[in-house]
Amino acid sequence: MKTTPALPRRAAPAPTALGGSAHHALTRLPGGVTVVTAAMPHMASVSLGLWVATGGRHEPAELNGVAHFIEHMLFKGTRRRSAQRISQDVEGLGGYLNAFTSEEHTCFYSKALHGRVETLVDVLFDMLTASRFAPEDIRKEREVIREEVAMYLDQPAQHVQELINATMWPGHALGRPLTGTFATLDRIRRADLVGFLGRHYTAPALVVAAAGRLEHAAIVDAVARHGRGLGPGPAPAAAPYTGGDAGPRVRLHRKAAEQTQLALGSRTCSRRDDRRFALRLLNVVLGENMSSRLFQRLREDRGLAYNVYSTPSHWEDVGDLVISAGVDTDKLEPALRLVARELRRLREEKVPAAELRRARDYALGQVDLGLENTESHMMWLGETVLTTGRVLPAENLKARLAAVTAAEIQAAARAFFRPERLGLALVSPRRTARGLGRLLAA
Predict the structure, then answer these.
(1) What pLDDT shows up at residue 1?
(2) What pLDDT is recorded for position 413?
(3) Which of 59, 71, 103, 408 is catalytic?
């Protein structure tokens, strides 16, 4: 990869309005980069993200953690900027810069006042196309990431999430930690980092998303000028999960602690499965907020947990829903019985009309609230276009959620909350997990 001189300004490719919404526009550049924007003229800021269609599940097992390692290294300096200058060039404008790695994508994003968007594009593409990967920086950042891994292992609430992934997706990339392990971090070399970057961070794998006070043509023009260092090549493909159902699986990590952290997961459906809309409302009923059944039963009625919640995730081919809680170790079995009872209720009984209406109104409200600032709107745009190739108008999503019936929620519960689809992970001072699987099989 190399830095190329800026091109003269030229007319941008004609944008395509999406979904009948005049403020969304999308352009695919000749090299393969996709640019999508949301014009929010009443805002003072612009949020900009570079979304790459690669993440933890695209890594070979021996290089587990390489995508996250690259995420760190892109902040360590380019041929034009030191690490300090990268942050100064954005923070000196009153903005900020950040990044994250997930199972299927990596995002580098920034936010600043609207008149500074050209600088944001310049800095982010400089990081993406001209990072140095200096050996000394790699050595130091390896130690930084080792400390990050150690920090997560020391936090039971975080550690149990890695354990439930390993329990739910055994032998698959989805079951490996995004940060890598001490062993894999020690194996990753400069050639691995640069090679993975060159193969996976290609123009067709990139979506540039921006939201705020902006002009679509100006964003497209800036991307065309600053993004020429990206190479060609197809977006990376990930191996599908082909493991069967053999649950409930139970995994215990013994640790001296004041309480037991539990994560109970169920394999569900992909982001392309229409049942995800029913699952969205099912999750609200079950454990998404303070009105949910798990919060009311475990915390308010029985005082068994300070924090209890459920979270759904969807990927290209599979998905899961994970219930998380911290409980007194002596109260673990009563807590699990209550959770199992609520899962059984969802299988056996339709959600009452009033409860369904509250869950639907909450979910619809969350859609609107999630799009009211530039950063959250950019996040929605980037992930949606990266995974579907188009903008799915919020009104379409709301219509699908509004149409979900109690029968569809019950059908989803019956399909997904079966013992053979369940996994339980524990970080606990308990000596054994014997008998806990039987509680879940009831």
Answers:
(1) 33
(2) 98
(3) 71
Q: What are the residues whose beta carbons fall under 8 Å from the beta carbon of 268, sequence distance 6 or more? A: 275, 276, 279, 312, 314, 318, 319, 320, 321, 412, 416
For each of the domains in the chain, give its residue range(s) and CATH number, in order of start.
Answer: 16-226 (3.30.830.10), 249-440 (3.30.830.10)
Instruction: Clarify whether 59 is annotated catalytic.
Output: no
Among 171, 57, 53, smallest CA distance to 106 is for 53
| 301 closest CA partner among 335, 274, 277, 332 | 335
Strand extents, DSSP E, 300-353: 305-314, 319-327
Length of the chain: 442
Reported pTM: 0.92
Buried b (16+ CB within 10 A) or exposed e, 242-260: eeeeebbbbbbbebeeebb
Which residue, 274, 291, 298, is CA-closest to 405? 274
Q: What is the pLDDT of residues 162-204, one digit of tens each?
A: 999 999 999 999 999 999 999 999 999 999 999 999 999 999 9
Digit-coded pLDDT (tens) for 224-282? 999 988 888 887 889 999 887 776 799 999 999 999 999 999 999 999 999 999 999 99
Residue ranges for the chain with pLDDT beneath 70: 1-22, 247, 442
| 186-219 CB burial, b ≥16 within 10 A, e <16 | eebeeebbeebbeebbbbbbbbbbbbbbbbbbbb
Which alpha helices (DSSP H) does 214-296 contain, by range?
A: 216-226, 275-283, 293-294
The set of residues, in sequence order, having a beta carbon less than 8 Å from that of 112 and lying 6+ positions away, is 45, 46, 90, 93, 94, 95, 96, 119, 120
Residues 102, 55 contacting (CB under 8 angstroms): yes
